[in-house]
């Protein structure tokens, strides 16, 4: 089976070089590198695009420049026009996830058109496309900037592209039930010693609440050891703190 190439991102008459750079950044985050520019307002190449790309220089360096939409998509079998309105053109309408599935499953290259920042694609631009791609959006505020629109579409395509996930933080070895029970038992004993469980008939309920609280986070072994060290330090303070605690305890005993 022939491998389907990633879609080309076609920016039609983009106005600001910074927005081209931001779109390139959005593309490379999700594995897209084929950027095509149709008559950018301020010309191309444009040094203002580089800083906004935040390192996605390869996308900008390889960007292709065209005079019109037809030339930009001439090698593509499937062309999608992103717009929130049909603009009087009767064509199939799909969501980004539906477009992504179609792009991955249909042979031939694909292109996705994005219009100028202020006005979006013109009716003649949409007419070149075979399918309209639109995002479910608040009908009272359908205002996406160019990079946001690109990143929505690129993200949906990336779901089936086999991109590797970011490395997961090592959470450590999970604490055993014995370790958890030891920590909870230590805390119960300390709280018993200071008269925390009062009145006595409420003790089972309070202990159950504490156990629920302490078992929710999914402690790892190092976390349990650390907290038990804290409890031990509170129970048996060192240095001056220990002397002060001993004095207080002795005073309490003499007054009882």
Characterize this entry briefly.
The chain is built from 11 helices and 7 strands. The protein has 256 residues and is α/β, with parallel strands linked by helices.
Question: Explain this structure to me?
Answer:
The protein is α/β, with parallel strands linked by helices and 256 residues long. It has 2 domains: 8-158, Alpha/beta knot (3-Layer(aba) Sandwich); 177-251, no CATH class. 46% of the residues lie in helices and 11% in strands. It is elongated. 28% of the residues are buried.
CATH architecture of the largest domain: 3-Layer(aba) Sandwich
CATH topology-level name of the largest domain: Alpha/beta knot
CA-based shape:
elongated
Query: What is the mean predicted local confidence, pLDDT?
Result: 85
Gyration radius, in Å: 31 Å
Total strands: the figure is 7
Bin the strand percentage.
5-15%
Cα distance spanning the termini: 87 Å
What would you give as the CATH superfamily of the largest domain?
A: SPOUT methyltransferase, trefoil knot domain
CATH class of the largest domain: Alpha Beta
The biggest sheet amounts to: 7 strands, parallel
- Number of helical runs? 11
Helical amount among residues, as a percent range? 40-55%
Low-confidence stretches: none
Series of secondary-structure elements, N-terminal to C-terminal: EHEHHEHEEHEHEHHHHH
Order the strands across the largest sheet as they lie in space.
3-2-1-6-4-7-5
